[in-house]
Amino acid sequence: MFQRVDPRGAGGNALGILVPPGARTLVVLRPRALAFDLLPAQWDGSHDHAPEFSSFSRDEAAGVARRVFAALELAVAAGINPVQTVGDARGERFQIWLRGDDFVWIACRRVPGQAYEPMTFATQAEATREAEKLAAMVWPALDARQEVYFNTQSFP
């Protein structure tokens, strides 16, 4: 289902698992073909407060990167799509989340030089269209050979 490749040889539809440099860092899921990245957040399921993005030490980030890849492989093997669209209480804004054991991974627009912020969609249909594109990359068919790469070193 997933084919590990070198970051330099990864194609335009590859899924990257990135750990940027720094003593405290993020783990980023980067579906290259889409205009957003996914960042891990902790959330207890309460609608009284929003999820909070997580940062990690270098060692913690490496473990999170390995675990999210393993979780994606398990989701494919189990036939459980981890991609969801989530709406606010009034149905006015929607987000894309990838559910994991430890975190929810929230889609955030990729804009160089700007801090990540959750990406919102005006309609359920719009969010669903983008979620389906993401699902094809993180929850591929068993015979898909979806390219995936890890990048913990080379950041321009």
Care to describe what's here?
The protein has one domain. The chain is globular, with a radius of gyration of 15 Å. The two termini are 29 Å apart. A five-stranded antiparallel β-sheet has the order 6-5-10-9-8, with helices on one face. By secondary structure, it is of the alpha+beta class. The protein has two helices and eleven strands; from the N terminus they run E-E-E-E-E-E-E-H-E-E-E-H-E. A hairpin with a 6-residue loop joins strand 8 and strand 9 (94-99).
Oligomer state of the chains in this structure? single chain
Low-confidence stretches: none
Approximately what portion of the residues adopt beta-strand conformation? 25-35%
Mean pLDDT: 93
- How many domain regions? 1
Please provide the count of β strands: 11
What general form does the structure show? globular
State the end-to-end distance: 29 Å
Derived from helix and strand composition plus strand pairing, the structural class reads alpha+beta
| Count of discrete alpha- or pi-helical segments spanning 4 or more residues | 2
Q: Specify Rg, calculated over alpha carbons.
A: 15 Å
- Largest beta sheet: what is the strand line-up? 6-5-10-9-8
User: Could you describe the largest sheet, including whether it forms a barrel?
Assistant: 5 strands, antiparallel
**H/E series:** EEEEEEEHEEEHE
